[in-house]
Amino acid sequence: MLSAAYLTFLLTSLSVARGQQVGTNQAETHPRLSWQTCTRSGCTANSNGSIALDANWRWTHVTSGYTNCYTGNTWNTSVCTDGAACSKNCAVEGANYQQTYGITTSGNALTLKFVTKSEQTNIGSRVYLMASDSRYQMFNLLNKEFTLDVDVSKLPCGLNGAVYFVQMDADGGMSRFPNNKAGAKYGTGYCDSQCPRDIKYIDGEANVAGWQPSPNDTNAGTGNYGTCCSEMDIWEANSISTAYTPHPCRTSNSGGQQRCTGQQCGTPIRHDGICDPDGCDFNSFRMGEKEFYGPGKTVDTNKKMTVVTQFLTNNNSTTGTLTEIRRLYVQDGRVIQNSKTNFPNLMPAYDSITGKFCDDTKKAFGDATSFQKQGGLQQMGAGLAKGHVLVLSIWDDHTANMLWLDSNYPTDGDPNKPGIARGTCPTSSGNPKDVEAQSPNAQVIYSNIKFGDIGTTYTAR
């Protein structure tokens, strides 16, 4: 997924950075979040579930005091002379989830607020579901379904409430990278199919080399290295548009986390890296069905909805080959089947992601075929079989203003051409400066997470 989440501090004594040592100023207590595992016999609550905040949002300072290791969008080069020295000299702190970051849980519900003001101003967040205090919960989605309730009624144009799986290490990279002393407890080890280069610590070392401050984000930049892994976007959405998208990778460990540099990261040629940055997306609006999802539409975003995603294999087993990813919704007690593609002169009426759907939509839309190049559904399934971490987030987009999700994109394309129109938001929308000023009270609520056998995680009437 495209990612530009960041944290803006008003006080110069605090700043966002990735650190690998552990500080002692703020105890790290993970907010509880209950979820359920389901079989034909029923669902069982995992009442000890919890969440951990990604390390990129946390204050990091020198281990010997309070001096920042990273301020604004630049490294403190007196401390971080190189990556190894920075990871040795810097400590990451625990988080005050509600006061600083606007993150709250209640039973099985998680609320992520967009703008939170306390002593500083926080923008967006990214959290992970935990199996224990020091390990992420791992999911093998093959021949299973994943379900959650979502309330996007307070997410306008330009925002993304995203729920997705990435092939991170269960321990946040501690065992592979000895310089990482913080691990999953402090939200380390992030990766995705964009091979993001704005991650400040990768493989236990600071991404100092070649770091360039962002020209349009006062709190972000890019270094020489990126961090790649396969990614399954279950839910990228606001109140206007939604998409679900697999992104396979050919990293050295079957789609697992790998540090990249140069063209491996997709730089400068976007589609020639080791991951598929575009994915094979199913966005109902983009697929020609413009009255299916949105305020007052068939799936009404003014109200909470249940989102069900099923991962079908060729032999109906957790060791089979992934062949199809299906979507359905439940709202007001009624099961709503996914919309169908509405281009009768170009392709059959598909209502799920299959290899044929991906081939036909890429051809019809004139999109790059990096999904197929990186192995398509088969490679995506091979990665899923290794186990993925659940990510829940809210973010705005400094790269493309979220227009790829909810407007016409590319903006100079003909909206009457199949694949260009992705939602009703104007092409002038989504500028983070505007979104942050105009929609500070935006939020997303995720609740009632369930995982289990196909057909067991939702109730129909």
Automatic annotation (TrEMBL):
One of its GO terms (biological process) is cellulose catabolic process. InterPro entries: ConA-like_dom_sf, Glyco_hydro_7, Glyco_hydro_7_sf. Residues 1-19 form the signal peptide. Residues 414-436 are annotated as: Disordered. Gene3D superfamilies: Glycoside hydrolase, family 7, domain (2.70.100.10). This is Glucanase. Its EC number is 3.2.1.-. It catalyses: Hydrolysis of (1->4)-beta-D-glucosidic linkages in cellulose and cellotetraose, releasing cellobiose from the non-reducing ends of the chains. GO terms for molecular function: cellulose 1,4-beta-cellobiosidase activity. It comes from the Eukaryota. It comes from Candolleomyces aberdarensis. Transmembrane segments: none annotated. Belongs to the glycosyl hydrolase 7 (cellulase C) family. Keywords: Carbohydrate metabolism, Cellulose degradation, Glycosidase, Hydrolase, Polysaccharide degradation, Signal.
